[in-house]
Amino acid sequence: xxxxxxxxxxxxxxxxLDHSRQTRRRSVFSRIVTVFTVLNALGVAALLLLISVxxxxxxxxxxxTYLPRAPWxxxxxxxxxxxxxANRTMAWVNGVAAVLVLGPxxxxxxxxxxxxxxTDESKVLRxxxxxxxxxxxxxxxxxxxxxxxxxxxxxxxxxxxxISELEEHYADWHTxxxxxxxxxxxxxxxxxxxxxxxxxxxxxxxxxEVEGPDGPFRVVNVHQSTARHGLMNLSWHSPFxxxxxxxxxxxxxxxxxxxxxxxxxxxxxAVVAPTLVLGDFNMPTTSSMFVKxxxxxxxxxxxxxxxxxxxxxxxxxxxxxxxxxxLRIDHILYDDRWNVHxxxxxxxxxxxxxxxxxxxxxxxxxxxxxx
Length: 371
Prior knowledge:
Blueprint: H1 14-54, H2 59-66, H3 74-86, H4 88-105, E1 125-131, H5 139-149, E2 153-157, H6 164-169, E3 174-178, E4 181-185, E5 189-197, E6 202-212, E7 215-223, H7 228-231, H8 238-241, H9 245-272, E8 275-280, H10 288-294, E9 298-299, H11 300-304, E10 330-334, E11 338-345, E12 356-362, H12 365-370
Parallel strand pairs: 1-2, 7-8
Antiparallel strand pairs: 1-12, 2-4, 3-4, 5-6, 6-7, 8-10, 9-10, 11-12
Helix pairs in contact: 1-3, 1-4, 3-4, 9-10
C-alpha cells in the first residue's frame, strides 16, 4: 500500500521548509537594512550638527568643512533603493536623510520672496567678482561670461602675473590696480584705502568709492587666506597621532584674526556710505569663522540665488571631475541699504574660481529708515 502524498502545508514538507527559510532570510535582511538605516540617519544628523554648529571651532570638523559633501548622500540613496524592496518603512527614513544631505549639508540655497527688479533698469547695478588666478587659466572664458552678463562693475583678486587680456578688455572703463586687487567700472572710481591685516601680516582688502547713478557708494575688494595651506600640514593618521594638528590650529587662529580684522574694516566703510563687499573669502557662509566675522552683512546668493552656487575649486586634477567645484567661498555681501534682485554663479573653468554676479539697487532713503 502506497503512502499518502505529503500536503504542502504539512510540517516537514519541502515547500513549507523552503518558504520558512525565505521568510527568515527576508526578516534578517530587513533587520540589517534597519540597523544600517538607523546608523546612517544618526551619521547624517551628526554631520549636519558638526559642520553647521561646531564647524571650524575644532580642527577635525574644520577639515569636514572644506571636503566635498556630495559623496555623503551615496549611503542614503543606496539604502533608499534597498529599503524599497526590503523594508519600506525605512525608505522614508533614508529619503529624509538624503534630503538633509542634498539640502542643508551641501548648502542648497532656495530663497523665497526675492525683491523684483525695478522697471527702471538704469537704477540697477550689475556687479561681479572673480579670482582670476593670475591670468594663468583661460581668462577669455571668464571675460565672455562677463560680457553676456552685461556687468557694470568688476572686482578681481590674484590680478598678478599676466592680466593684460583683462586690462585690454576693459580699456574704456575706469580701472584701478593695487597689488593683487583689480577694479573695473563704468562709473568713476577713487581709491580710498588698502587694508593690511595682522593675521599673516598681508593686504586683505582694498576699498574704493564709486560715483554711481544714485550717488556715491563704497566697494570693498576682499581676498582672505585659504584653509588649504593649513590642511596640508595634516595626514590621514592625524586623528590618531596628532601630527600637524598644532600647526593647523595655529594657522586657523591666524585665519580667524584675519577674517575679524578684514570684516571690521569693511563695516567701518558701511558706517560712512552704502557698501558692497565682494571677493574671495576662502570660507563658506556656514563656516563658524565666517559667521563670527561677516554675519552683519547679507550674502547676495543666499538672498537671491538658487542652487548650491559652488565657486571653487574648478581645476582639481584627476581625483575629482574637472570644473565641478564643491565649495562656495566667493561671495557678494551687502549692507541694509541695498536690494538684491538676482545672483548668478559662472559656469566655466576659465579660472580656478567661478565668477559671482549680482544685480543690486540702492534702497530709497525712506525704506532704509523704516527698517
